[in-house]
Amino acid sequence: MAQREELSRFLKAARAKLAPADVGLPAGERRRTRGLRREEVATLAGMSVTWYTWFEQGREVQLSAPMLERLSRTLRLSPNEREFLFALAQHRPPPLATRRDETIHAGTQHLMESLSIPALVIVEDWTVIGWNRLVSRAFRDYSQMPRDQRNLFRILMLNPRYRADPDKFRDMCRRLIARFKWDYSRTSQPDVFEGIIADMMEQSEFFRQYWQESEIMAHFEDTNIADMPGVGEIMFRHTSYAIEEAPGQRLLLFAPLDDVSAARLAQLVAEADAVCA
């Protein structure tokens, strides 16, 4: 019952924040309370006044996801407020939003820059949108690449530098494609993924082979090697983490795999610090 009471308070507060002019309605006669009336919210959201009234009162009324989406738009809810509404009403997250968040938040960038390991951020179609200086030193300088050339899936699948060991490359392709399938199933931008899929069907024999198979992978960890002139080979294990404040973004971290690699990475960090000094 407590969650229904919170839902009632939340809806009343959201309704009170909106003036008629905010939603294109005339102010009309003097109003006894702030904000929109219940019947105005119901009409704008395409709902029965009785149904909305019961819902706002906290009764055991179930609204479908499309109805909650219309209500979110009517009440001008923020992304966080939309998620809060779905959590209280349906006890689950809302459907994936169609908005694309490609803004690197200040906290995320600060975290990456404070790390002594390479770190980068990708969006759901695997395009790299943020990185720290060690990524530029160990892998590639994304600042010199236009956005349409920064898709990490394409880079890993097509760049000749990853083909030195055919067996390892084949295994990497299989695992990458299994994870890419998982992301495709969850995306809010299927047309973007389908463009990548069509291109890869033309350009990669391994993609054509493994895309037809049923393997999927919800989590992806692997090792990779960076050969640094003057430092030597550094073996990394990389993992990825969802960024809570930016749905659709993932933080990839590359940690040295052994003591030798850790020592060489430390040398790389020292050289990068000397350049910045």
Fold topology:
Elements: H1 2-16, H2 38-45, H3 49-56, H4 65-74, H5 79-90, H6 106-114, E1 119-122, E2 128-131, H7 133-138, H8 152-158, H9 166-186, H10 190-203, H11 205-211, E3 222-228, E4 232-242, E5 250-256, H12 259-276
Helix pairs in contact: 2-3, 2-4, 4-5, 9-11
Describe the structure.
This protein has 277 residues and is α+β, with helices and mostly antiparallel strands. 49% of the residues lie in helices and 12% in strands. It has helices at 2-16, 38-45, 49-56, 65-74, 79-90, 106-114, 133-138, 152-158, 166-186, 190-203, 205-211, 259-276, and strands at residues 119-122, 128-131, 222-228, 232-242, 250-256. Strands 2-1-5-4-3 form a 5-stranded antiparallel β-sheet.
Structural shape: elongated
Q: What percent of residues are in strands?
A: 5-15%
How many helices in DSSP terms? 12
| Global structural class | alpha+beta
- Please provide the count of β strands: 5
Multimeric state:
single chain
Mean pLDDT equals 87
Instruction: Kindly report how far apart the N and C termini lie.
Output: 59 Å
Main beta sheet = 5 strands, antiparallel
Summary?
The chain is of the alpha+beta class and 277 residues long. The relative contact order is 0.10.
Supply the key terms.
alpha+beta; five-stranded antiparallel sheet; 277 residues; elongated
